[in-house]
Amino acid sequence: MIALTRPGLSCAVFAAFVLPATVGTAQAATLDDVRAADELKCGINTGLAGFANTDDAGNWVGFDVDYCKALAAAVLGDAGKVQYVSLTGKNRFPALQAGEIEVLARNTTWTFSRDVDLGLTFVGVNYYDGQGFIGPRSLGISSAGELDGASVCIQTGTTTELNLADFFRTNNISYEPVPIETNAEARAAYEAERCDVYTSDASGLAATRATFDNPNDHVILPEIISKEPLGPLVRHGDDQWADIARWVLNALISAEELGVTQANVEALAQKDGGSDNPEIQRMLGSQGSMGAMLGLDADWAVRAIKAVGNYGEIFARHLGPDTRLGLERGLNALYTNGGILYSPPFR
Amino acid sequence: MAAPPRTRIQQISYLWTDERLRGIAFQLLVTTSLALFFAFIIWNTATNLKHAGLASGYGFLQDAASFDINQRLIDYDSTSSYGRAFLVGGLNTVLVAVLGIAAATFIGFLVGLMRLSSNFLVSRIAAIYVELTRNIPLLLQIIFWWVIILALPRVRDSISVGDVLFLNNRGVRMPQPIFEDAFQFVLALIVAGGIGTFFLARWARKRHELTGRTFPVGWSSIGLIFGLPGLSMLFLGLPISLEIPLQGKFNFEGGFNVTPELIALWLALSLYTGAFISEVVRSGILAVDKGQIEAARAVGLPPGLRTRKIILPQALRVIIPPLTNQYLNLTKNSSLAVVIGYQDIVSIGETVLNQSGQALEVISIYMAFYLTLSLLTSLLMNWYNKRTALVRER
Q1: What is the pTM of this model?
Q2: Which residues of A touch B143 (CB under 8 A)?
């Protein structure tokens, strides 16, 4: 697996910067490019349970995949017109910067340097995550502060190592880092007790724990040592496209808040006999011209919600308590339900 | 009969038929088009990078790295710079490459000689080893050894050797020597012993060539390098103490730990490359003329001397160029370390890349590093190759 990704990256970089014969490919008008290709190129994870993985039939499914589908439905009118580009932690940014994909929805943490220095625009947060620890119950520890002298397995690929170093440095305790690139090997090392604890984003830990033989023998420690707001992102330089990506996400969140679901969205969007809530009317295009302002037609949000459902439905389908991951909404509940999920209004 | 004066066209075709001029013309053409091609590639890449806002240079190397490394040959902590992190990773690569080359060479020569043995069992065992290791992908072998080591007893059930050395699935924890100030004197004696041995060996060789009398250089060098400093240590009251590892809550604390990742990578690289080297050695030895061996036997040289003085010096001339290739392969293959989490330059570079997003800069550092390391190895081996070649002409 690894041996394949490294040349893959070099090839991507080579192809992206050396081969294009004409200097200065079009930066603006991403919308026109997507329409001309009649296909949305969406960057996703190479495989993370719940967020982006393939089902038995080989189709991509997951929380991030559904965002791609919603965007394609809004822009192209068909949730199936997505070309999924699975990307590693390393090559995701070059792929976006070089224009190989139009949007990246791959558990990517919104940070200052990515937003500013790498020339990317985060369009919002679709999952509030944070880095945590999992350890064997038999170790008898109840807090990460007790880990002085422990060996810590780390799945690399994000800023996991940095958060870990900061945490141990702040608490003035020592540890042995064991950084491993793939989840499979890192898990194997943890299971063989090469390490005392394993650290990754809490959502990922839940996904990993679900696959252990005896999930109850392992506890997730209460400390969340970092803020990991994950969200989709686009390139700098095309504000219209960034607006579309941002408001598709906001529409999914607002839909949950307003009670618009996959089942009732079409009925609510009717001009006569539909919803009489003005915000729903504006969002679903039965009143006003919000679609035209985005450069889309009036039904853009209807199609997005019809394709994948509202945020709550997407979460329940891929991450919620009824899935293998069994994640609670927690911070990701609507602000009206004790979470911090909050979409700006449609007006 | 005088030749008719050449027409203009004939003059031009004369230019064409002149081999030397034609050669120059083609070389010019090829050089110019190659230069233009590369100039275009570089210009195009640079412009595209600038356009994508990606070429931000190497300034980030001075920023704080903010991550930790578990195996450090030089001082490093999370407040050190990215540049220093690369240095730590580079040294880790050099460490496993040097250890690997030493072990692979030893295994290679041993197995190469075993394979040529007239003893059926010995030569069969060597053949089975070679076929087994060189036909299984290295990546699998690295993971294989790593899994084997992870299956060792856990920390609480460590295998203890005399209560000072502990073996478990987190590596080998051994006592760490702590040097006191007076040890510098011992160190100076060791260096002096080394220099003394060098001159002694030169004098002994000259005397052997002039008078035919031999001098036991090997034994006296051991005395000079180890014996004298060892004696002085007794007089100085052993200026060296050992820090014995103690069992802590999670791990052993104190002492010196060799990580399972280093052991697994070193084993896999040495055994894999050792198989290839053994074939190189075998071919080198088989390339020595049979007459040479018969002649050595005829003048009554014992088997040990026969191998050392007659076969090996001649075989080395054939062995060294392909041996260099194997050394370079081993060094480059060490980058597979990233799978099991050995923090070599690639593993550390990936962390840097993830944190800083400077993909192209990091990749260019990889390339420059491996190129430099490989060129240094080649340089060293070419120098040695020249030396062994000269021996033949003398």
Answers
A1: 0.75
A2: 185
